[in-house]
Fold:
Amino acid sequence: MTELQNIDLAITGAHILTIDQDMTEYKPGSVYIVGNRIIWIGPDDEQPGNFLIKERIDASGKILMPVFFNGHNHAAMSFLRGLGNDLSLDKWLNDFIWPAEKVMINPETVYLGTMLSVIEMVRSGSGIFSDMYFFEDQVARVCEEVGIRGIIGEAIFDFPSPSMATPQETMEFTRQLKQRFLGHSLVNVSVAVHAPYTCSPDLIRQAGELAEELDLSANIHLAETQTEIETISGLYGKTPVQHLYDLGFLSVRTVAHHSVYLSPDDRQLIKETGTSVVTLPNSNMKLGSGACAVGELIKLDINVALGTDGPASNNHQSLLREVQQLARLERVVNYDPTCISARELIRMATINGAKAYRMDKDLGSLETGKKADFQIINPDQPHWYPRYDPYNSIAYAMQSNDVESVVIDGKVVMRNRELINIDEKRLSRELKKKAGILF
Amino acid sequence: MTELQNIDLAITGAHILTIDQDMTEYKPGSVYIVGNRIIWIGPDDEQPGNFLIKERIDASGKILMPVFFNGHNHAAMSFLRGLGNDLSLDKWLNDFIWPAEKVMINPETVYLGTMLSVIEMVRSGSGIFSDMYFFEDQVARVCEEVGIRGIIGEAIFDFPSPSMATPQETMEFTRQLKQRFLGHSLVNVSVAVHAPYTCSPDLIRQAGELAEELDLSANIHLAETQTEIETISGLYGKTPVQHLYDLGFLSVRTVAHHSVYLSPDDRQLIKETGTSVVTLPNSNMKLGSGACAVGELIKLDINVALGTDGPASNNHQSLLREVQQLARLERVVNYDPTCISARELIRMATINGAKAYRMDKDLGSLETGKKADFQIINPDQPHWYPRYDPYNSIAYAMQSNDVESVVIDGKVVMRNRELINIDEKRLSRELKKKAGILF
Structure:
């Protein structure tokens, strides 16, 4: 370290949960940031003195931890939130969602819908999300405007999409996105394959090859419902997981969403190939799909992360609520209150997401050299007392609004509940104006 | 109506969800209050003009609905929240909760613990809760200080309690409480029988008779776990429900908490006797107990209300989160997204609680002549857009902190997130001082 190095941002006095391999805590601790990276993190009383600090935030009495990593989303679908609920999945999709999407999906609605979701995500401590939808360049635009990280994936399936005439066009668009956002500070690109039941075997194979060629993550809805299991078994005489395995789609770059219906053999294939799973408990519950046996995956040391899914099937965007839901769902499914720990859950919501998308070198925990992506939480509220264990308080008692400030890529994106780069009041007025047309 | 009648409080401009029999809405609507009662409610443009209004709250753009009714709690247990989690129920109770209670329970901790929970309840829209614990006069003291309604029940079981030497003493204390709070504006009393496995048949019979004699509600933990079913079957050769039925304990004055393990015959007995059920989904999930088959109860037209349970087994105090949890749990248990509607859920959280405790003449819905107990919610936030249906937004997307103001018994208890009668900052300082001793 050179003498009198300039520090762009220093946070001091916080109870820091690093979520590193040893779950190191500093109480109180400090983080020093230059540009977008942590150049020092440690206990307050070991702070090095040879720094010129440009901006200091006193976080005394606050908890500082990595931002949440939202592993799967269709963020733009906020404009469909609450449309036609309490319905069977078929009726909901056929009579409400698909007709509405047909009329409503265009670059502007995708921009606006994603903006709504992204604001909700930041306000509940998420700093990155993986998205699968249409007009994903609009999602990237929102990320740049708000200052959140996004992994954008233009949805690939056999039939024409609202944005693309053919899957080949979509794959070509994915290739362009990869070029366009090469080295971007916030936006990453993925190959977003919709599902085994909406993509031909050939298309899945091609998409997998594209991901490999471009060195991108490939993500897919997999084994979400019993119906899917029956459909794929009828078509190919095997489980969806075995089907993808045989097509060479499963690998360390693959992220499988949902994975509610897995056989023991399926789990072995997921394990063997290094595939990650994103579990989405609130969506699976709301749609009546079932419960992913997360404990079984953890036993096999499979990497499991968390996601919200789109707002239309959840209906919120707070990853914290997924942590808290999985804590409860896993217990009731197993009739066992010991089956999953608060620490495991919080690793799933942070570092495991980064691992799933192979970004854990930079993201997911707070360590010297990693990117400065963290949230500051205010626990000085009745629902936090007493605080025997901070992980436990987060996994069971914390509320989304307790997130006070969010720093992403070294920049303050929300400070004291105010988004820095977005005029929320103006957005609210715009939404109301559009209400007649859109909603 | 007389000319120029004085109105103590008028709320205007709100989107009112009355939760009356017809689920009437006024959009925008007004509520006029004299003393602790609603003397007029209706659409804004039909407001009568012959009134002198002392205080007016403009609730334009807000949602106004009844407060939530928390049907079962051990509020003081907030001081045990987060103590020894991720453990089996046995280990948790034997190694943590019971030893801690032995040392920690006294009038002061009950007061402080209840205060914490009550603040959290008010801040998330609850205006009344039914409590079962020890030193319940301290719970009443909190209700008076904060301005919330409480139904207080000193826990009855065979062995000595932290506050009472014998169950007879507890029943005598219940008798005294009933006298002391006769006609009290906020505090009601119940006969709080702990459970079939902690009370002898004789004690249960006596407690039931006491409730009848004093015309009080009787509430009891019933059929909460598989272990309870086995214990009671081993002791008496029948289900806990049949056991209580044979003891004459089940009636329209009885409220059964949990009721996770019910046989079809049990349900018929509950139906036949007019017993109400309080379901506590988050507690049942966190403790790995199981899922109450709420849909089966509703089919039989049994009155089902909602509760949080104590903060140690939940770990929060927001009834809204129980609404949102049950919405999801019921769907995933039944693999069916159509099994329960948002409207039903919100009735369970309001009017059904009032019915369970036979208070629906005064509470649970907003109608002329009923008591003025309501919450004002701010939906002008990203996670509320779009708003196709307010019930749906509440049941899935709303956050506890969206409750802006709470009126109980005609008095503003929270205004713009500030509790009127409590100095939260002072309380927080007191808690920190006690932290060394208590936590």
Summary: The radius of gyration of chain A is 21 Å. The longest helix of chain A spans residues 107-123. Chain A touches chain B through 70 residues (CB under 8 Å).
